[in-house]
Structure to design on (72 residues):
């Protein structure tokens, strides 16, 4: 995914997901790093109804990055 997105946006996406899972009481149980890939595993359940909110949070993170980038 990092090859398809502008540099720096992945940090905002990862932060948004971390906050999303924390708010829902999910905790990080494992982190795997391999070369350029990092995978975080969270424990908990997400209802299908919650996915639209997750998508919105991710879209907001990308929009925030785009606005910051345009200001430069």
């Amino acid at each position: 995914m990092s090859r398809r997105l502008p540099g720096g946006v992945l940090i905002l996406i990862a932060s948004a997901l971390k906050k999303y899972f924390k708010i829902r009481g999910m905790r990080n149980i494992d982190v795997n790093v391999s070369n350029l890939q990092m995978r975080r595993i969270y424990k908990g359940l997400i209802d299908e109804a919650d996915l639209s909110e997750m998508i919105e949070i991710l879209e907001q993170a990308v929009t925030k990055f785009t606005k910051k980038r345009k200001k430069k």
